[in-house]
Description:
Layout: H1 6-19, E1 23-26, E2 37-41, E3 44-50, H2 59-72, E4 75-79, E5 93-97, E6 100-103, H3 105-114, E7 120-123, E8 126-129, H4 133-142, H5 147-154, H6 158-166, H7 172-182, H8 212-223, E9 230-231, E10 239-245, E11 248-259, H9 266-280, E12 283-288, E13 302-304, H10 305-330
Parallel strand pairs: 3-4, 4-6, 5-7, 11-12, 12-13
Antiparallel strand pairs: 1-2, 2-3, 5-6, 7-8, 9-10, 10-11
Helix pairs in contact: 1-3, 5-6, 8-10
Amino acid sequence: MSQKSRIGILNEVEKFLQNTGYGIAKLSPGSNACFDIIAKRRDQLIIIKIEPYVDNFNRDNSFELKNIASFLNASPIIIGEKGRRFSQIEDGLVLLRYGIPVISTETFSNLIANGVPPIVYCSRGGYFVQINRKVLRQARIERDLSYADLAHLVGVSRRTIYEYEHSINPPPETTARLEEILDVPIAQGIRIFDIEIEKESKPQYSVNSMSSFKEEISSILQDLGFLSQFWTRLSPFDAFGEHKSQDMHSGLNVLVCVDEDQNKNLFKRISLTQDIASLTKRRAIMIVEDDQEHPATQSIPTFTLEELNQMKKAFDLVKRWVKKYSDLKDN
Length: 331
């Protein structure tokens, strides 16, 4: 099979999603972001990165993608064609790249359009099939086979059969042999959207050089209660954060765009950020140095640094009032 281009895969994936009822926010094909599509259908939210040669997806990409996915409560996934170890990612196979599932376009299509999940995954030591251990054990017992009996028929050790029923998964050829002997399907689909994604610390070689303007914004937002901020380098928005009040989640989650020099791509970034905010039930805001006739004010809630400082002063005043009131009650 000839390898597909990134734009070709992106268009194909977009078509799959639209035809199956997903709402989508899509970045331009030339984007250097850590994701390309965010898609939602009912309660399922997916954040997708298209990377034909999967080894090009590096740790910087994974760090940002995992953090954005966590903030949006989305399932991250990489769709690719090949890699250093794979001349072609086969249909029905799941790889992991920095803990994020990687599948082919065909596997994605079968999953989204036909509800057919992949069953084979690659891990250290080779290829394995996720199995239903209860079905395996029940089938063995119903056929009055001991661990040793089944092990002899399959050609593995007694201990291996025990492990199959309790902790490990067999390779594809062993799975096929077990199903043939027991005359029951034991392969189980991999729920790639439910894989627990482990957060990782920021790579040492990844330096986030924020401008003094952004540093000041970050400091004010923190004072205003946006404690869980994350500043990005590989997405349409510059930052995201959740507001917390007395360590309680307020439900106010914002995507922040910052305009320091009226970048020519500003309106494209604003449009994408608003699409993502709408799809994921977040709020989008723009922060600028001076709003005098700033073009962003016509399309997105826009705040100046001065306005943020005024909010901070008001916030500090309320906190002091609450403390004084509490002190009086205690006395």
